[in-house]
Amino acid sequence: MKVIHWNTSKERQQMSGLKRYEDNLFENLKAIGKDLEIERIQRSESTIFGSMPFSWLFRYKCKDADIVHAIFQTIAPAVYFRLRKPKRFIVTVFDLAQFAESFTNVDLSLRIQSALSPRALKKADMIITTCEFTKKEIIKHLKYPEEKIRVVYEGINLENYKPGIQSEEIIDKYGLPTKQKKILYVGSEDPRKNLHTLIKAFYKLKKKYGNVKLIKAGTPQWKGAREELMKLIKSLNLENDIIFTGYVSDDDLPKLYNAVDLYVSPSILEGGFALPILEAMACGCPMVISNIPPLVETAGADTGVMVNPKDVDGLANAMHEALINEDLRDKMIEKELERAKMFTWEKTAEGVFKVYEEMMDK
């Protein structure tokens, strides 16, 4: 079985955890063996439709492949396959964020691609998605047939993400406090991530429990988002209480989760599997998260403290309780570590390989 992995562009990899998914899936599929020959091709993004040399190279590489698996969802497949589609074509869909109102605030090229992606996805013989919630969204928004969608959860490397990792160097590197409690959020500043509510709740928490800092890890990724947040932070006089780390490498992330006292994810809308929540759980970091379906599906119904993401007081109170209640913290950590064991890259690769076998049988 010859499979081409059509990976996303370097530009998009830098914006998200896509590279981690692509790398881990590829390596673990190779370990499965079973006469599986895999080659990786990275998509060009020099224009909306990719570069001409890449187009010819890609079509040449694909002509003998049994399966082409695109690990992204944009208009590119519709463009490259306008003349001839591969024998079997699979697309991984992580979320349908383009249907969120906030998606209109991103780069024009990405907006055009995502607006046209339903046309591209209809060329897929099968769609792999990473959670049941996204499967329902694909059926709802794209009218794609349910029988051609397979859910394969993302995984985590439990050798890298685990409790007890020494984090002194991270504290120094990012200027984190040593004598104050630390609350962490990892992700973009897209409005659907609801950071305005988190900052307002943090302000209320500071008044009740002053010895605490908020750490925001990751790049903004959304035009004008940082400027809006800074206006709110300044109006609440929190300039010295919130630390923006910027991009955090895969090597640093496990250490960062181990360096903090609480992880918070206040999203009002998520399109798919919530990898940072899985990372926090695997590191034994207590969590306060929104009670929206994708986050509950990732975390499980009985791990962490779940709140209404629009309730500022509720979020502030939940963070306070999670910081001071040691019994609650111990129970959360125990449940989170057990839950994290369910998600490994080996299981992800096995699930994807079963889809490949199914496609070959057809």
- What is the string of SSEs from the N terminus onward? EHHEHEHEHEHEHEHEHEHEHEHEHHH
DSSP summary, beta strand count: 12
Oligomer: single chain
Give the DSSP E fraction (strand runs of 2 or more residues): 15-25%
Helix amount: 40-55%
Q: What strand line-up does the widest sheet have?
A: 2-1-3-4-5-6
Mean of pLDDT: 86
**Helix and strand composition category:** alpha/beta
Major sheet: 6 strands, parallel
Report Rg: 21 Å
The outline comes out as elongated
Q: How would you describe the overall organization of this protein?
A:
By secondary structure, this protein is of the alpha/beta class. It is about 45% helix and about 15% strand. The chain contains 15 helices and 12 strands. The strands form 2 sheets. A 6-stranded parallel beta sheet has the order 2-1-3-4-5-6, sandwiched between helices. It has a 6-stranded parallel beta sheet with strand order 9-8-7-10-11-12, sandwiched between helices. Strand 8, helix 9 (about 225-235) and strand 9 form a beta-alpha-beta unit. Helix 2 (about 20-30) crosses helix 15 (about 345-360), helix 8 (about 195-210) crosses helix 13 (about 310-325) and helix 11 (about 275-280) packs across helix 14 (about 325-340). The longest helix is centred in the last third of the chain and has 17 residues, at about 345-360. The chain starts with a strand and ends with a helix. About 40% of the residues are buried. Mean pLDDT is about 85; it is low at about 100-105.
